[in-house]
C-alpha cells in the first residue's frame, strides 16, 4: 500500500516520537527523584549554636532537620554546628547579618545589642509566671520582637524554652539579695543582665559561656546565673555547690534566620522552614520540661544544695530598676506585658 520510502518515513517518525516520549519521561523522573527524601538537596542551610549535642535545643534542631527534609522532599537540608564551632552567639548573629551563616540559635539576652527593645525579655520579674511568659511570647508582643530583627539583617522564626534563670555559687548560698553583696557574678553580654545583678547587690562580670567553667574554678567569678539544664549539662555543679531557684528572669532562646537567606528562599521554602521551626519549638518545650525534672534528681544525687528562697525580697529589690524604664520603649512593652 505504501512505497518503501513512505514506510521508512513512518517508521522513523514513530521511533522519533517514542524517543522523545521516553526522554521527556526520564526528565520528569529525574526531577521527581531530586525531591525525594535522601536525595541530593537543592539547598543546604547552615545552622550554628553554642550548646552541647545532648541539650534539648540541639535535640529539637535535629528534629527540625528531619521535618524540613520531609516537608521539602529533600529540597532543603540543615547542617547543624553545635558547641560554638562557628563562633560565640554574638559572632553567629553577626555572620547572619553578613550572609555568611543561614541560621543560629541565641539567647534573647545578647540580642539587645542588635534590637534594643528585646531587652524587655531580660528585665527581672517582668513575667508573673511561666504561663504568663508563654502567653506573651506566643502573642502580638512576641511576634513583634521576632520581626524586629528584620531591620538589622535577620528574622526570628520561633522561641525555644530556656526556663528560668537563677543564681548559682561556689561557696555561699543565695537566700536573699543581701547574700549577693560582694560577689562577682558572671552574666551574658547584656546591659540588662548587668543592671539586674547590680540592682540585686552583686558585681556583674561578662564572660563568654565557653570560658565560664575555668573562670569559676580559678575564682575569677564567685558564681553565675542560668537555668538548671545548662548548669548541669556544662558540669558547673562540679564547682558550684549551691543553686538558688530565685528565677529572676525567663529569657527565651530565639531561632534566627539571615534576612539574605530568607529572601533567597521561594515562598514554599519559607513556609517549610517556618513550619519546621514551629514544630521543633513545640518538641523542645516538652524536652526542656523533661530535662529539668531529670536534672533536679541528678543534682540531688550529686549532693548539690538546691535552695528555694522567698522571692518577695528579690522582687522588691528590682523595683527601682523597673522604674528606670519609665517613658522608654522597653517601659512601654513592660506595661503591655503587665496587662496580659
Question: Care to describe what's here?
Answer:
The chain has helices spanning 4-34, 56-72, 89-98, 108-111, 130-137, 140-148, 191-199, 212-217, 228-233, 259-264, 267-302, 312-317, 319-323, 329-338, and strands at 43-48, 76-81, 103-107, 154-160, 165-169, 184-187, 203-206, 223-226, 242-249, 253-258, 305-307. The strands form 2 sheets. It has a 6-stranded mixed β-sheet, with helices on both faces. A 5-stranded mixed β-sheet has the order 2-1-3-10-4, with helices on both faces. Helices cover 48% and strands 17% of the residues. By secondary structure, the protein is α/β, with parallel strands linked by helices. The radius of gyration is 26 Å and the shape is globular. The protein folds into 2 domains: 43-162 and 252-292, 3-Layer(aba) Sandwich (D-Maltodextrin-Binding Protein, domain 2), CATH 3.40.190.170; 165-250 and 299-338, 3-Layer(aba) Sandwich (D-Maltodextrin-Binding Protein, domain 2), CATH 3.40.190.170. The longest helix is centred in the last third of the chain and has 36 residues, at 267-302. Residues 1-39 have low confidence and may be disordered.
Largest sheet: 6 strands, mixed
Mean pLDDT: 89
How are helices and strands ordered from N to C? HEHEHEHHHEEEHEHEHEEHHEHHH
- The tally of strands reads 11
Architecture blueprint of SSEs:
Elements: H1 4-34, E1 43-48, H2 56-72, E2 76-81, H3 89-98, E3 103-107, H4 108-111, H5 130-137, H6 140-148, E4 154-160, E5 165-169, E6 184-187, H7 191-199, E7 203-206, H8 212-217, E8 223-226, H9 228-233, E9 242-249, E10 253-258, H10 259-264, H11 267-302, E11 305-307, H12 312-317, H13 319-323, H14 329-338
Parallel strand pairs: 1-2, 1-3, 6-7, 6-8, 9-11
Antiparallel strand pairs: 3-10, 4-10, 5-8, 5-9
